[in-house]
Amino acid sequence: MTTQQTDLGNADLLGDEAVADPYPLLAALREHDPVHWSAKYRSWFVTRYDDVAAALRDERFSSDRITPYRRAKLDGPDADPGVRAAFGVLEGWMVFKDQPDHKRLRRLLSRAFTPRAVTRMTATVEDIAAELLDGIVGRGTGDVDLIGDYAYPLTASVIADMLGVPREDREQFKDWSDQITGLVFGGMGDATRHAVGAEGMADLTAYLADLVRAHERDPADDLISAMISARDDRDALSHDEVIATGVLLLFAGHETTTNLIGSGLLALLAHPAQRRLLDARPDLVAGAVEEALRFDGPAKTVARVMGDDVELRGRRLRRGERVFLCPSSANRDPEVFDAPDTFDVTRERSGQLGFGLGMHFCLGAPLARLEASIAIPRALARLPELRLTDEPLSWHPVLLSRGMQRFPARFTAP
Ligand code: HEM
């Protein structure tokens, strides 16, 4: 075994250095140990583009990692009933389903969450971005947290608006959503995080249940009503499925997109020539968003559990073992991308895997692209001489997603 491989035996994506910048470690794994067993996480990490892409399309890499966990940990008499109920909601999410249940949910939701429904959000996204930027400029301090003051409230408001959540309930909605982050991104097994997450989930589902009932009585022109009436010749979403899917959309809809707006702005502030290029050529904005997804996208890993034994690059992945597929690494694979560590908004071919691939390909990708392609250039245009500060950036110490806790920046106050 080479020194590199020995060192990689302790590879830890949650080590301080790797949380701040996972790319050197991912590059080493990709090169020397592309199907890596981590004793610490008792999981595989798959880092090459071809392997990640193939696994995302391979149903032996099961998406249902909730049911086995529930059976092992939550079906016993000592399990906390609140945590069990919270995992029950997660179990209803299409992203955690295999076929045929996944196909049915996706087919029905696709009837409500349509490209037209997304395009209709354009003016709303523009208005919300403008309102938030006015507020930031109006404070007159020149300091901004681009996550907390801008990206987060923007994406939360957009998805809440799309779903049909009244404006006055937004703050509450956001708190519950924050609480359930620990359940979804936190990994299994942290009791405190689970208890907090379970409380947030109980409050949020109770709130959504009322909202769904109100929409059942009195339909509106929004996504909740569209989900209630989404049906085909075979069936429709049940009341509980509308609630669980509402929680999924709320959650999936803002956490990740916040991170994309943050990392897109960060890449542009850190690469002034690219920023100037985008200023001069607004037609490059779609490419810039794609490049932000590739270069430092929100999906650090995508989790699977082996539904069968699979042989991969001489390693045997056994049924029941957990696997982290790493789009963050695939997107920097030099076999696929020229100069992969260079941020280049004019990159022609993307093929980035930041939205996944195959049957679970991100349903919200058009909305995320719309939000980022408005939010990023608007912030650069409205906040004069926006620039980084000396304050070190703090990143969420989680395996699944890549995002900043805060993003302090400065602009020249009016
Ligand atoms: C930049 C922002 C986003 C990123 C990076 C992202 C990333 C992803 C990824 C990687 C998957 C695949 C997960 C897997 O294979 O296990 C996924 C699935 C999904 N995303 Fe997104 N997402 C984003 C925004 C959104 C938005 C705005 C919504 C909706 C409002 C959304 C809704 C969904 C849904 C419903 C799924 C499950 C699809 C399925 O299982 O068929 N996402 N997302």
Describe this structure in words.
The strands form four sheets. Strands 1-2-8-5-3 form a five-stranded mixed beta sheet, covered by helices on one side. Strands 4-12-9 form a three-stranded antiparallel beta sheet. A two-stranded antiparallel sheet has the order 6-7. With 414 residues, it is an alpha+beta fold. Strand 1 (35-38) and strand 2 (43-46) form a beta hairpin. 55% of the residues lie in helices and 9% in strands. The chain has one domain (3-410): Cytochrome p450. It binds protoporphyrin IX containing FE (HEM). Protoporphyrin IX containing FE (HEM) is lined by residues 63, 94-95, 106, 159, 248-249, 252-253, 256-257, 260, 297-299, 302, 354-356, 360, 362-364, 367-368.
Total beta strand runs: 12
Q: CATH topology, which one? A: Cytochrome p450
Major sheet description? 5 strands, mixed
Q: Average the pLDDT over all residues and give the rounded result.
A: 93
Uncertain runs are 1-6
Treating each run of at least 4 consecutive H or I residues as one helix, how many helices? 18
| Straight-line N-to-C gap | 60 Å
Structural class: alpha+beta
Taking Cα atoms only, what radius of gyration do you get, to the nearest Å? 21 Å
CATH class term: Mainly Alpha
CATH architecture: Orthogonal Bundle
What overall form do the CA principal axes indicate? globular
Strand order of the largest sheet: 1-2-8-5-3
